[in-house]
Amino acid sequence: MNAMGMNRQTGRFISENAHIAQSVQDILLPLVGSRVMRRDYGALLFSLLDKPQTSALRLQLMAACFSALLRFESRIRLEKINIEQHAETSQIAIVAQIIESGAAFSFHFPVRSR
C-alpha cells in the first residue's frame, strides 16, 4: 500500500516519499524549544551550524539529526546521515528505509548558517 500525505503549502495530496521528506525537513529545521505547545520538538541543528567546522562538530550535527528523526519520524529506519559543510551552507543527506514497505528513501537538503 502506498500511503499519501498532504503538502503543507498547497493542501494537495503528495506521495509517501514526498510526505516523509516534508516531515524530515519539518523536524530538523526548528530549534528545540521554539514550538510553544511542543517544546521538545525539533533538532539542535541550527544551534550547531555557526560553530567552527571540525570533525567533532560534524559528528554532533549527525547525532542531532539522528536523535530528532529517531524520536519524531517513526516511518523510517535510518541507515546513514551525511553532512557536507561548505563556506555558506551545509548539505544534509539522509539514507533510510521506509519501515512499512521496505522501500529505500533518500533525501538531501541545504541548510544555511545564520
UniProtKB/TrEMBL annotation:
Gene3D superfamilies: 3.10.450.40. This is IraD/Gp25-like domain-containing protein. It comes from Arsenophonus endosymbiont of Trialeurodes vaporariorum. Residues 17-99 form the IraD/Gp25-like domain. The lineage of its organism: Bacteria, Pseudomonadati, Pseudomonadota, Gammaproteobacteria, Enterobacterales.
